[in-house]
Amino acid sequence: MPYTKEHKNKTRENILDNSFSLFATKGFEGVTIDDLMSNCGLTRGAFYAHFTSKAELYREALKFRASKTKIASPKPEGTSNKQWLSLLLDKYLSLEHVQGESSLSCPLAFLATDINMQDKTIKTAYADVYNGMNAAVMEHASSYINCDEEDILSVTAMMIGSVAIARTLQDQDSIESLLSACRREAGVKLGGI
Fold first, then answer.
1. Domain that holds residue 130
2. How many domains does the chain have?
């Protein structure tokens, strides 16, 4: 009996989610299709039922993870845009996020050092995710402060860069200092949140 569409979709999501985790820790070149599928508890044949190449999987895993991040989720009812951005900054610039303890780690920060070595379609997907992050932050921020695109670009670049750099540091005090400094500066730029 053939698999249902729901089963196929769940399998695809499992592959995307598990693959993102491997790509985020080992990079594109650091994993094979066999590694990816073994991590999912699936066979190599299952890979080709969903993807044509590892590059396609990388691109789709990036977009999938981005769609699951806190910033992509709807603002909770009864929460102002200012409160929502404050919560987002707190979660994004946290030790838990840096350590990858959040199941929804941001692909922009976790793939920052790997993305430059990828092909144009993957770089385009990364840029699309980044532009989406900027649009989401701008939408919330512009409702309560006068800001422009450059303000938002500086905030999101600081957020992504601080998490990417913090992931390379070994000293927890240094990591916490970096995150705290970036949280403070991003908060100032976003209206004192």
1. 69-189
2. 2
CATH number at residue 48: 1.10.10.60
Domain boundary among 61, 88, 108: 61
Contacts of 75 (CB under 8 A, 6+ apart): 81, 84, 140
Q: What is the pLDDT along the chain (193 residues), one digit of tens a residue?
A: 677 888 889 999 999 999 998 999 899 999 999 999 999 999 888 899 999 999 999 999 999 999 988 888 889 999 999 999 999 999 999 999 999 876 668 999 999 989 888 889 999 999 999 999 999 999 999 999 999 999 999 999 999 999 999 999 999 999 999 999 999 999 999 999 9
Q: How far is CA 126 from the centre of its chain?
A: 10
Instruction: Answer yes or no: do 164 and 76 share one domain.
Output: yes
